[in-house]
Amino acid sequence: MPQQLPVLVQTPAHSQVGGTLSYLSEAALPAGTLVRVPLGRRETLGIVWDAAAPDQPDIEASRLRPVAAALAALAPLTPAWRQLVNFAASYYQRAAGEIALAALPPQLRELNSEQLARRLKRPPPVAGPAEPPASPVTLTDEQCAVLAQIDAQAGPFLLFGATGSGKTEVYLRCVQQLLEHDPEAQALVMVPEINLTPQLEERFAARFGAEVVVSLHSGMTNPQRLKSWLAAHSGAARIVLGTRMAVFASMPKLRLIVVDEEHDPSYKQQEGARYSARDLAVYRGKLENAKVILGSATPSLESWHHSRPAAEGGRYVRLLMPSRVGEQAQLPLVRRVDMNHQPKHAVFSPPLLEAIKARIAKGEQCMVFLNRRGYSPVLHCAECDWKSECPHCSAYRVFHKIDRTLRCHHCGYTERVPRACPGCGSPDIRPMGRGTEKLEEQLAELLADVRRPDGEPVRIVRIDADTTKLKGELEAQLAQVHSGEVDVLVGTQMIAKGHDFRRITLVAAVNPDNALFSSDFRAPERLFSLLMQAAGRAGRDAGLGAQSEMWVQTHHPTHPLYENLKKHDYPGFAAGQLQEREQAGLPPYSFQALVRAEARTQETAQAFLNAASALGSETAAELNVTLYPAVPMSVQRVANVERAQMLLESPSRAALQRFLAGWHDTLHAVRQGPEGKGLIRWAVDVDPLTI
Ligand code: ADP
Ligand code: ZN
Ligand code: ZN
Fold first, then answer.
1. Ion ligand 3: protein residues whose beta carbon lies under 5 Å
2. Residue in 184, 190, 167 with CA at minimum distance from that of residue 257
3. Mean of the per-residue pLDDT values of the chain
4. Vertex 418 angle, CA 412 and 424, to 5°
5. Within the chain, which residue ranges are assigned CATH 3.40.50.300?
6. φ and ψ at 438, to 5 degrees?
7. DSSP letter string over 296-343?
8. Model pTM?
9. Which end of the chain is more exposed for a tag (fewer CB within 10 A), N or C?
10. How far is the CA of 683 from the centre of ligand 3 (A)?
């Protein structure tokens, strides 16, 4: 007598089938088993799931289709993993099937059981722990103290350590202790960006042996991803390194999770299921009884707030490593240039330019960054005021000089630069403002007669999304910087993150002021973190002996953000920001969600949101959830689609969750009704990072 099995499959977002589908099976397959099942006319990968919710109607057994095959060679996914998926689905308002199937390596969908069995036959490389070689360094007192605390307490921990304080060494030791202690235990170490994984993988492989370390990130080929995933799932890999997607890695013996640079916005998925891998890591740690360490020199204000003293309600243990390792332990000197007293329109103030020249003459390296790629953000006609707007978006197209194109950074629409103004025919159209491409060009002019110690002209390299589109380009450019071939590195914030540049002694932020007065309440937090990270790039080589410097060109030199930066005072900055957030009732003192809607017209998008809001208003009031009116998004139109959003806010996370859970059906109903006519799509973003 075949039995009914609930199976999770990938369903389109927002299809009414949120949960599982029922299939028949002769064998009693345990929950977590991977299966192939018929779905419509195709066959698809599914996961036997835990019993369906009791209110789901039993379908007549005669209408059910049988499971096509079970991938019996694979151990079932663990209950904790399934619970993680269920939690993420309900918290972030998505279908469990979408999250679960996206977390599996794509190639698993294509393999049948025989092919899979063949792959698994290849014996996994040595399981048990190789005797880890003794660590080459003697720990600092701060590192010892932190490790003792991690050992003695349950966590979760927030490791607040200056750049270069030796946080990575702490992670390595924690992993080492774990592996020595428990012959099966696994550790997950996450970094925000794919670019940072090779460096880290090298360090972990050198310490523990390459055979027990695997990476998991979206830059890998499908066969590589499958291989890593299988190694993690089987327990052969003791250490998994990865980006945010790795939080869903199947690791049956997970005992330690590290989230490095935990403040980094890349941990939040920005499409589909908009989960925060950092927040899920904390949840998963609790679920699996694994220790969780979040590390940063500039923690997110949320994590900082959670790590306040327990007596004040803090839930994380705050660990401190304020000092840099090494003889040259001092942090760079921060110099603010008051641009109000510099020549008008100067991109590089004379003192900064002199400082850069002096560093080059001594054979040292400089890093200059600006938050905008391309040559200039807009092309402008002096005659008729025409600007290079994108015909499909409410945004300007950026002038890229190198291939003389106007490119929209929102929809990708690209055209050759017109010879004359499309508005009035005047040939006098000029770039307004500047991006990294123009910055590089100007710097090359300004430094044309400067010589390196070897008498050669200055070498400048630019690193941004435009110069690193092709695989391997970033690595090649970074290698140039490391080898000392490059004197000045120009780029976007991409270069300020994480990379360990040994010989850079001067870092300059050319024009960081925009973020000070942004309408996004998180902009100052991001700017401060970026500048601190950038400062951390300077002076990492103790051998150079020079006092390194971080230069900031600003029209607001006495702004508290820069005052705190000068003192390298993250706690001071955080205290000021948290006070402002508390007064304004913003996160972490409140909890937010956004509903976004897209349609051909702004009215349609807003009508949908406002209709759903009206239907939810009574419940919202009862739960103390505030529903704000629908408004256009800051870039209102992208690729001819109008975008609107609505903010939901509550002092209680639980209340907001309860409201969202109930409101979900309302949104679906409105979508089907007259107010949903013409709507293209809608989605909820819980704990949004940008508003
Ligand atoms: P962070 O991750 O905090 O920026 P790292 O762990 O990368 O810092 O350490 C910075 C540098 O100091 C690295 O080159 C690392 O090898 C070195 N280092 C770390 N701990 C020690 C130590 N106890 N003794 C000597 N060097 C150390
Ligand atoms: Zn014109
Ligand atoms: Zn566009």
1. 390, 392-393, 408, 410-411, 413
2. 190
3. 87
4. 120
5. 141-321, 333-373+435-583
6. -70, -35
7. ESS--HHHHHHTS-GGGT--SEEEEE-SPSSS--PPPEEEEEEGGGS-
8. 0.89
9. N
10. 21
Asked if the model's pLDDT at residue 511 lies above 70, the reply is yes
> Which stretches of 209-323 are DSSP H helices?
222-234, 277-288, 301-306
The response to whether residue 140 sits with its C-beta less than 6 Å from ligand 1 reads yes
| Phi, psi angle pair for 3, to nearest 5° | -110, 160
Query: Hey, what CATH topology would domain 141-321 get?
Result: Rossmann fold (3.40.50)
Q: Which fold has domain 591-686?
A: Alpha-Beta Plaits (3.30.70)
Residue 63 DSSP SS3 = helix
- Whether 102 lines ligand 1, by a CB cut-off of 6 Å, is no
Alpha helices in 504-554 (DSSP H): 523-537
Superfamily of domain 333-373+435-583: P-loop containing nucleotide triphosphate hydrolases (3.40.50.300)
Atom of ligand 1 nearest to the CA of 321: 3
Taking the CA of residue 169 as reference, the ligand 1 atom at the shortest distance is 6
Angle value at C-alpha 23, between 18 and 26, nearest 5 degrees:
150
* Ramachandran quadrant class, 28 (left: phi over 0; alpha: psi -120 to 50; beta: rest): beta
* pLDDT over 60 (residue 132): no
φ, ψ dihedrals at 358, nearest 5° = -65, -40
> How would residue 548 be classed by pLDDT, with cut points 50, 70 and 90?
confident
Domain 3-121 falls under CATH 3.40.50.10490: no
Q: Which two tokens stand for residue 406?
A: 């106007």
Written as six digits, the tokens of 434 are: 């500047």
List, for residues 4-49, the tens digit of each pLDDT value. 888 998 876 555 545 788 888 888 889 999 999 888 888 889 999 9
Looking at the chain, which residues constitute the CATH 3.30.70.100 domain(s)?
591-686
CA distances from 52 to 57, 108, 220, 352 (A): 9, 24, 35, 65
